[in-house]
Amino acid sequence: MDKKIIVGIETHVQLKTKSKMFCSCSTEYFGGKPNINVCPVCLGYPGALPKVNEDAIKQAIKVGKLLHFKHINYYSSFERKNYMYPDLFKGFQITQYKNPIVSDGYLEIDTQGEVDPASKDTNHPKATPTHHVVPKKINIYRAHLEEDTAKSLHESGYTLIDGNKAGIPLLEIVSAPDINGAAEAKEYAVSLYNILKYSNVSDCDMEKGQMRFDININLEINDSGRKYYTPIVEIKNLNSFRALERSINFEESLQFSEFEKNRIEMNKGNKVTKGWNDLKGETVFQRGKEESDDYRYFPEPDLPPLVISQEFIDSVKIENSAEDTMLQLEKANISKSSAAVLVLTLGIEFVKFFNNACDIYNGDLNNLVNWIINDLAGIISEHNIDLSSISVSGFVKILNLVNDKKLTATSAKEIINKMIVEKENIDELISSRIVVSDDTLIDKYIDAMLGENQELVQTYLNGKEGVLSFFIGQVMKKMQGRASPSDIKDKILIKIKNFQ
Amino acid sequence: MILELHKKLKAGNISAKELAEEYLKIAEDKNKVLNSYISITKDYAISHLPDKIESILDGIPGCIKDNINILSTNTTAGSQVLKEYISPYTATVISNLDKFTLIGKGNMDSFAFGSTTQNSYFGPSLNPHDINTVAGGSSGGVASAVAAGSAVFGIGSDTGGSVRQPASFCGIVGLKPTYGLISRYGLIAMGSSFDVIGIMANTVDDVALILNEACKYDPKDSTSLNIKKKIDYSKFSDISKLKVGVLKFNDDGVEKDVITAFSNSIEDIKKLGCSVKEVVIDHLKYVIAAYYILVPSEISANMARFDGIRFGYHPKGVKDLEEFYIEARSKFEDEVKRRILIGTYTLSSGYYDAYYSKADAVRRLIKQEFDEAFRDVDVIVSPTSPTVAYRKDKVFDNPLELYLSDIFTIPANLIGAPAISIPNGLSCDNLPTGLQIMGPQLSELNILSLANKLYKKYG
Amino acid sequence: MITQDEVVKIAKLAHIKLSQDEIGKFQTQLSEILEYFSLLKDIDTTSVREDVSINGLSTILRQDIPNSYPLDQSVVYSNALGTENDYFKLDSKVL
Questions:
Q1: A304-337: string of b/e by CB count within 10 Å (b at 16+)?
Q2: Domain with B446 in it: what CATH number?
Q3: Residue A450: domain span
Q4: Number of cross-chain residue pairs from A and C with Cβ atoms under 8 Å apart
């Protein structure tokens, strides 16, 4: 028996706007006091009416452009999706059902294929000796706007509800069942995450629930020339890439072993809904088809339809997508792995910083990227500092001095750290650490150090070469980093030779 | 009447406080018999008196239907579930009317579902013309208050005739404006694509003056119309050239006295110089069906927020969520349950196309047909209600019978058009009959002007 | 004629409890009403445009400007079943 996994993913993303989808309450919902950003509209008080947030529409159009949607629909409309739950204040969710704002898009992902010797692409960072990378198009049926629900905390015997999250704009992105397996699903989800985050559509913080996935999954089984399809399982509310991967792997083997046992095929009535228990690492049955809701969608009478002009669509600009930026960096000969960290992990603000730095930097751009992704980004995240507060020219000035061999890398790191964390004046820091060009001065420091450590010199001579780095460190310390460690090392080796 | 009172207040012949006290006293006395008010807001009225009289409505006593929110007052919508509900905000229309004096909140059928006020949790409002009859509904309390003289004007809501029918029953003037002309923000929704705020008063002049204040564009209501050119509705236009259409309707079920009064009105219209011609609307026979599918559908969703958590009836000692919901919603009145059930059915999977979708399409056909009719005539007249006020002990075994009596008022709601009811005579039992004048969207000035001319004749 | 089972199913969807008497009563009433609605069945509505709102409005948007503390905190909870630490509280076990 042969099997193929078939997965479709519905991704919910909270759009980055200042106010909610249908009212003017602030979208700052996380971590604050409960029920502070609420009004009659998002609390569903009788008589209150919704009004559409223009920027949510713009964000949706942006996604339409980023995900190659064929149709950014001139006409779209809102519907009410009816069901009662304590986190749904009006007893219905305003969503788009019949006429979504965008339809018919795709996302291209990298998948692992077996090596075809003729077209071996070993340059690709994800390529391995036995596999190479094959691009694959995942079709996306539609993306539609809706509102998020409130947050409910289920305690034993009672439930607490906070309305701050109620009404945050959501975009639901619905893929075709083109995804074959956990690896592709993860690749799809990560690509989506990168694209949306980079273009400021969403912060995509999964711990805050800003991005979450529902999946539909079943198997196509080939047995003695006949195809069988196992019943579709919907897994709701996966809120990490890991949960996405693990749940697919779990469900794949579960469905396969169940099919072997009972040979049950999918039909209209046997779709089930499950949840994911991350601790146990298993999917958990929630309800079957017969218990599923009848949502009774109908046009939202409080909201006239959206008729969007080409002019409006054109007014939504995408400065630079993640994809475009990666290509530009590749052209500038930046290594793909560094570019990926800069663009996808650190994001657009760091890319802007890099672009500004490029103009005045005097060395190999790969080094500049490495300084940014290894040093700058690390310090910033460790001390929770805003990137915009950091002077590009100051940062580059330090690095240029390293390239001119006037500063050691060690000194540069120290200065950068003090500049960022303690806001110290870099000119003073630089002048006290500028590399000593006078060889006799370095010799003096080395002689003094060797004089103080005669026993260790003997140890070294007896074959324990590890103490060499101690010697270098001592001189560096005395000289406050004003000579390069490699220079010091060379000089020490010469001097010790003379001892012999 | 408003203009005279305004002059007196402005001249200091009477203070806003004296006027308020006078009306509050009438309200308290008459309410014992008529049950016009769910609450008489004496403290609120006295503590919100205007410091000085500026705008036309400053200090003018009004009655507001109890489904319109006024911050920190009790707003019940005539229902048991909201009997203790305190409004957390104020409806836009109330802010627009600003410094009027709130005498009280008018009784109504629960959530405005009904045409007798007998669906009110607080009992029916009676008709000042004959206390053995009802005031009509659903804005019956407001109509009763205005007709009895305990308020100078009233604000109601009209989804299928709820302002015009009680106005007709109580012998006063009732206007349902164009959909979107007055903000709905703060009006507890019934059928959201039908609901409008309506105005009731004893004269057409008064209705026009209130409309002037009430109809401001509201950014909080996405269906609010933003009309660039401000119209003064109290400056009536010349109607002698008006082309008046007379609606052709089936006489079955229309009372003889109503038909007589209507015939007399047509003669009066002719005497004003207007041209008169018959208008046939082929789809008229479908309006009740379309309306009673679409409105309950919207109702079924609008009522889902009454889950007993943030407001409404709070169940105690239940074992799970389902029981909690069922218990919270068990306090809905029968007509509320009935409409939720109808609407749930007409939207449910497998029935949506045959009911909701079909009715929505028919609604558009009806609008098309009226649009065409309004190319030929400026206004269309008909009786407001097929009957005069019902006796308070009349039993309707069948809800459909009552639904069918909305035949004349519903079309205006289906097509979002304005319509006014004015008294046009008395039945042999001395109960008022009503004439409805309806026009295309935003033709308020025309229908008010014609209504004013005819009203002056009867008044 | 709508069946009693259908009445029960609809009532469940609407979270409304009906006694056996009420089920019977609503069965009769709803059946009559639905029977009346069948009047619409034969109307040809194929040419009807669905994309126009009742008063002709479209694309009514609001600028993305937040207002802080939109509702006075004292009235947020004034009609609530219960509260705890600024949360709405529902005393029954929900899941």
A1: bbbbbeeebbeebeeebbbbebbeebeeeebeee
A2: 3.90.1300.10
A3: 439-497
A4: 117
Whether C74 has its CB under 8 Å from any CB of chain B: the answer is: no
Domain count, chain A: 3
A296 HSE (CA, 13 A, CB side): 28
Last residue of one domain, picked from the residues A433, A450, A477: A433
Length of chain A: 500
**What is the predicted pLDDT for the residue at A123?**
56
* B434 CB burial (10 A radius; 0-12, 13-18, 19+): buried
Q: Using alpha carbons, select from C94, B316, C82 the residue that is nearest to residue A158.
A: C94
**Residue among C26, C36, C49 minimizing CB distance to B341:** C26
CA A300-A305-A307 angle, 5° bins: 160
Interface of A with C in 59-78 (CB under 8 A): 75, 77
Question: How many Å lie between the alpha carbon of A18 and the closest alpha carbon of chain C?
Answer: 6
SS3 A270: coil
Closest residue of B to C2, CA-based?
Answer: B345
Q: Nearest CB to C64: which of A38, A53, A75?
A: A53
Q: Is A316 on the interface with C (CB under 8 A)?
A: no
Task: Tell me the C-alpha distance between B146 and B170, whole Å.
Answer: 9
Specify the amino acid at residue B443. Answer: S
Q: Does A287 reside within a domain? A: yes
- Both A127 and A217 in a single domain? yes
Residue among A49, A90, A298 whose CB faces B221 most closely? A49
Best residue in A42, A49, A290, A307 for a mutation probing chain B (most B CBs within 10 Å): A49
Residue type, B23: Y
Residue of A nearest to C91 (CA): A158
Last residue of a domain, one of A279, A307, A335: A307
pLDDT in tens, chain A (500 residues): 789 999 999 999 999 999 999 999 999 888 789 999 999 999 999 999 999 999 999 999 999 999 999 989 999 999 999 999 999 999 999 999 999 999 999 999 888 766 555 554 555 555 555 666 788 999 999 999 999 999 999 888 889 999 999 999 999 999 999 999 999 999 999 999 999 999 999 999 999 999 999 999 999 999 989 999 999 999 999 999 999 999 999 999 999 999 999 999 999 888 899 999 999 999 999 888 766 679 999 999 999 999 999 999 999 998 778 888 888 898 989 988 899 889 888 888 899 999 999 999 999 999 999 999 999 998 988 888 888 889 999 999 999 999 988 888 888 998 999 999 988 888 888 888 888 777 888 888 888 888 888 888 888 888 888 888 888 888 888 887 788 888 888 888 888 877 76
CB A215 within 8 A of CB A10: yes
Q: Which domain holds residue B107?
A: 1-459
The residue count of chain B comes to: 459
Task: Give me the phi and psi of A175, to 5 degrees please.
Answer: -85, 160
A44 with A92, same domain: the answer is yes
User: ipTM more than 0.90?
Assistant: yes
Across C37-63, average pLDDT: 90
Same domain, A267 and A347: no
Please say whether the structural domain C4-42 has been given the CATH code 1.10.20. yes
A300 is a domain residue: yes
The domains of chain C are located at 4-42
Catalytic amino acids of B?
65, 138, 162
Torsion of the alpha carbons at B258, B261, B266 and B271, rounded to the nearest 10: -170
Number of domains chain B is built from:
1
Q: Which residues of A touch B67 (CB under 8 A)?
A: 47
Report if residue A84 sits inside a domain. Answer: yes
Q: What is the pTM of this model?
A: 0.89
Contact at CB, A304 and C57, closer than 8 angstroms = yes
What distance in Å separates the CA atoms of residue C6 and residue C12, rounded to the nearest whole number?
Answer: 10
pLDDT tens digit sequence for B54-74: 999 999 999 999 999 999 999
Phi first, then psi, for residue B7 (nearest 5°) are: -65, -45
